[in-house]
Amino acid sequence: MTAFILRRSTQSIIVLFIMSLLVFSGVNLVGDPVEMLINPEADQAEVERVIKELGLDKPITEQYWYFLMNAFKGDLGTSFIFGEPALKLIVQRMPATIELALFSLFISLIFAIPLGIYAGLKPESKISKTIMAGSILGFSMPTFWVGILFIMFFAVYLGWLPSTGRGEIGSFLGVKSSLFTLDGLSHIFLPALNLALFKLSSVIRLTRAGTREIIHQDYIKFARAKGVAESRVINVHLLKNILIPIVTIIGLEFGSLIAFSTVTETVFAWPGMGKLIIDSIYNLDRPVIVAYLMIIVIFFVFLNLLVDILYTLLDPRVRIQGSN
Amino acid sequence: METILEIKNLKTHFFTKAGLIKAVDDISFKIKKGEIVGLVGESGSGKSITGFSIIGLIDAPGRIVSGSINFKNEPLLNASSNRMQSLRGNRLAMIFQDPMMTLNPVLRIDTQMIETIKAHDKNISNQEAFRRCRDTLGLVGISSPEERMKAYPHQFSGGMRQRVCIAIAMLNKPDLIIADEPTTALDVTIQGQVIYEMQELCKKTGTALLWITHDLAVVAGIASKICVMYAGRIVEQGSVDDIINKPMHPYTIGLIKSVPSQNKRGEPLHQIEGMVPSMLELPIGCAFHDRCTETIEKCKIEKPIETNQSDSRVIRCFNFKDIRK
Amino acid sequence: MLNTDSNSKNINVFMYKFWSDFSESKVAVISLLILIAIVLIAIFAPLISPSDPYDLSKVSIMDSRLPPMAKNFAGDIFILGTDGAGRDMLSAIFYGLRVSLGVGVMSAIFALIIGTIFGISAAFFGGKYETFIMRIVDIQLSFPSILMALIILAAFGKGIEKTIIALVLVQWAYYARTARAAALVERSKEYVEAAQCLALGNKKIMFNHILPNCMPSLIVVGTLQTAHAISLEATLSFLGLGLPITEPSLGLLIGNGFQYMHTGDFWISIFPGVALLITIVSINLVGDQLRDMYNPRLKK
Question: Do B152 and A316 touch (CB under 8 A)?
Answer without folding.
Answer: yes
